[in-house]
Write a structure and sequence with these properties.
The chain has helices at about 10-25, 45-50, 55-60, 60-70, 145-160, 180-195, 235-245, 300-305, 375-395, 455-475; strands at about 5, 30-35, 40, 60, 70-80, 95-100, 105-110, 115, 120-125, 165-170, 205-210, 225, 230, 245-250, 250-260, 260-265, 270-275, 280, 285, 290, 335, 340-345, 410-415, 425-430, 450-455. The chain is of the alpha/beta class and about 475 residues long. It has a domain at about 5-125 and about 285-360 and about 370-405: FAD/NAD(P)-binding domain. Helix 1 (about 10-25) runs parallel beside helix 9. The chain is globular. Bound molecules: flavin-adenine dinucleotide (FAD).
Length: about 475
């Protein structure tokens, strides 16, 4: 009998846990450690943030699903890993602090044979003074944040209805943020809602981003074929911003947010301030607060985690210039080299380098998007880790370990540009591979046949369909495992 502990019940961890339960014998144990009682389909938080969905439409309670599937569930934060055990544990174990109201703040220890770290990001609002719901701007990173953002946006819309002009700022709250796609979506949803409310002429909408140019999305932009011609996501996105009258400020690092004003520096070294009535600015991400200790109790966190707090896996982390980055630098099994029974998947693993070209301002400030690890790759990695753990449990050292590098993995992304069954629209993009491979695909680093972009009403329907499909899958309803990640 083996015990697999999955830290994190989000997109990657929940996927891993459900597949593990399906693949393993009943005598093997699968236990999820996660601090929230709810699962959240984060992509639809965008619609909660503009009042088009309620929080309970994008969340559901995890406990009953785990009970039905026979998955152990500890509502707790994992705080430390002991991969070698210690004097009182022969096996490796994880330290927990319970968030379950019935055991709040109690300490726990959970032994494991295999560990999957799927703890996602720490929303690092603290990196920028005044950023976030506890400061002076809104967020849509959690369903709760999105509810607050929706109320603040509605207050601005009400003021416009009374004839007051409003400045609405949407974007990235730090020069090293990732998830530009989410901010892009929210900016266009805000524009759509304001137009629907009949007050578009009173709204100045500004998209404030760390991207060097529009359409970068943290993946260095896309080149694709459209109606027989090659085009770029830059051209495509710029035209959308022009069409919808959204002003973009690119290459920006937000240095601070105060009541009604955001301060930022740009790549040319200029320092500016922008007054706003409503602001939704995403935080930068870092790894969650986890430590690692060896058998003697010495802190080995620096070996296991990168300075960003994300877990180091089978990637090439040697520092090298941009020109020397290779597709092979990216991990393919997501195992920790010294402890192959530990996997880190989804946002939790440390990327070896950026995907977009890194840049600094003339003052030396890093202004460069961090690599996104969106839902589809996160789900794929979760399933991959589950498959490999199941194989290792069944076949021991002779198990065939499968691989899924982001340099050999495609991703589909449907970025909503406004909700509505008749008037909605979305930008649908696919890219292959996510991490460009300039050896296989000289020029753009991606397959022109498998990289694609289109905008229109059909995209909105697809996004809505995916919302229902992925919630169905996450609820482990009949046939859930047939729905791809
Ligand atoms: C606003 C927004 C919109 C987005 N839209 C899209 C989209 O349209 N399409 C797309 O593909 N991607 C989108 N993404 C990205 C997508 O949400 C992420 O790729 C995905 O959630 C990553 O999955 P994950 O499992 O790594 O992290 P998460 O889904 O964040 O899960 C991490 C889990 O770990 C738990 N956890 C945290 N700390 C601990 C701890 N110490 N111990 C145990 N558990 C812990 C968390 O509570 C959470 O349950 C969006 C992201 C945002 C913020």
């Amino acid at each position: 009998m083996a015990r697999v502990v999955v830290m994190g019940g989000g997109i990657a961890g929940h996927t891993a846990a459900l597949h593990l339960r399906r693949m393993l014998k009943r005598s093997d144990e699968v236990v999820v450690v996660t601090p929230n009682s709810n699962w959240n389909w984060i992509p639809s938080n965008i619609w909660v943030g503009v009042g088009k969905m309620k929080a309970d439409q994008v969340t559901f309670t995890l406990g009953p699903i785990y009970k039905r599937k026979g998955i152990g569930y500890e509502q707790a934060l994992a705080t430390a890993i002991h991969p070698e055990g210690d004097a009182s544990h022969a096996k490796p174990f994880v330290d927990l602090t319970y968030t379950d109201p019935a055991r709040a703040d109690e300490h726990g220890e959970l032994e494991y044979d295999y560990l999957i770290n799927a703890t996602g990001p720490k929303l690092n609002f603290g990196a920028t003074p005044g950023l976030g719901p506890d400061g002076h701007s809104n967020s849509v990173c959690t369903a709760g944040h999105a509810v607050e953002a929706s109320a603040a946006l509605q207050a601005s819309i009400d003021k416009m209805k009374n004839g007051e002009r409003q400045v609405l700022v949407v974007g990235m709250g730090h020069g090293t943020c990732t998830c530009e796609g989410a901010a892009f979506e929210y900016a266009f949803n805000v524009e759509h809602e304001v137009r629907q409310a009949g007050v578009r002429d009173l709204a100045d909408i500004v998209y404030l981003t760390n991207e060097y140019e529009l359409g970068d999305f943290g993946v260095g932009g896309l080149t694709f074929t459209q109606q027989g011609f090659q085009t770029t996501s830059k051209l495509w996105t710029e035209s959308l911003f022009r069409e919808r009258g959204i002003r973009a400020v690119t290459g920006a690092h937000v240095t601070g947010v105060e009541e009604g004003v955001v301060h930022y520096e740009q790549l040319d070294g200029s320092i500016s301030s922008l007054f706003f009535d409503f602001a939704m600015l995403l935080p930068p991400f870092r790894g969650v607060d986890l430590k690692a200790f060896d058998a003697e109790g010495s802190d080995i966190s620096a070996e296991i985690f990168a300075p960003s707090g994300f877990m180091k896996v089978d990637a090439d982390y040697s520092a090298k210039p941009f020109e020397e980055w290779r597709a092979e630098d990216w991990p393919s099994t997501y195992q920790v080299p010294r402890f192959p029974n530990i996997f880190a998947v989804g946002i939790a693993f440390a990327p070896p380098h950026q995907i977009s070209q890194p840049r600094k301002s003339t003052n030396g400030t890093v202004i460069a998007p961090s690599p996104p690890r969106t839902g589809m790759p996160s789900g794929i990695m979760g399933k991959l880790a589950a498959t490999n753990v199941a194989e290792m449990i069944k076949h021991g050292a002779s198990a065939e370990v499968r691989t899924a590098s982001m340099a050999d993995m495609g991703a589909a992304c449907v970025a909503s540009a406004g909700s509505g069954l008749r008037k909605g629209s979305a930008a649908s993009m696919t890219m292959y591979p996510v991490v460009p491979d300039l050896v296989k695909y000289p020029g753009t680093g991606r397959s022109l046949d498998d990289t694609f972009g289109e905008i229109g009403l059909a995209g909105h329907w697809i996004k809505l369909l995916l919302h229902y499909l992925f919630i169905y899958k996450a609820k482990a309803r009949p046939g859930w495992h047939l729905i791809p990640e």
